[in-house]
Amino acid sequence: MEDNEVEKLACSHCSGRIKEDDDFCPDCGTLFNDEVKCSEHISTEAEGVCVICCEPFCSECGIYVNEIFLCNEHSEYEIYEGMARVYGSSDSTQIEYAKSCLEQNNLHPFIYSRKRTTLHLGGTDYSLFRASGEFDGHLINEIKLMTPFQEVIRAEEILDELNILEE
Q1: Quick one: which of 42, 52, 61, 144 has the most CB atoms within 10 Å?
Q2: What is the mean pLDDT of residues 20-37?
Q3: How far, rounded to the nearest angstrom, does the alpha carbon of residue 99 sit from its chain's CA centroid?
Q4: DSSP H helical segments within 40-167, as ranges?
């Protein structure tokens, strides 16, 4: 039986599609085996598997963020529908270039944008407008380059090698 013919099951936590022999859900990080130990604390049972680095972690080293398990290192990533932000800019040409570089390396990037043009408002572009309150360094109208969870680390390596990522 070929891989695409294998009957898929549903994760009990997120209802994502999983295979019968999966050790964890790739969509939410829920573990299906009770005997898995934390990558950092080998005597402690893992709470889940980080969907970005695919490593198991205990509740001290990882956390569920919006029903998705992430290690502490990856818990601040922006996540939308099974994808994580790897790069952002208000420059659409730079985003398209980064997307092209990732596609050339057989990754599956997606551009997410809520940027409005001058036609939407009938006036000047407001992409530099920032709301009051805490500012996390991202422009409100940032164009985001997203990749599937398991491609994030490789995508960041590629973008870093090309000096595209901001440091």
Answers
A1: 52
A2: 90
A3: 15
A4: 92-104, 118-121, 152-161
Tell whether 70 and 86 lie within a shared domain: no
* The pair of three-digit structure tokens given for residue 136, joined into one six-digit string: 């996390």
Pairing of strands 110-112, 17-19: unpaired
On whether the CB atoms of residues 30 and 22 are closer than 8 A, the answer is no
Lowest-pLDDT range, 13-17, 55-59, 101-105, 163-167? 163-167
Q: How many residues does this entry show for the chain?
A: 167
d(CA 55, CA 40) in angstroms, rounded, equals 10
Q: 69 in a domain, yes or no?
A: yes
Determine the pLDDT at residue 152. Answer: 96
Give a yes or no: residue 167 inside a domain. no
How far apart CA 90 and CA 133 sit, in angstroms, is 21
Q: Report the CATH number that the domain containing residue 106 is assigned in CATH.
A: 3.30.70
Which domain covers residue 56, as residue numbers?
1-76
Spatial distance between the Cα atoms of 94 and 88, rounded to a whole number of angstroms: 9
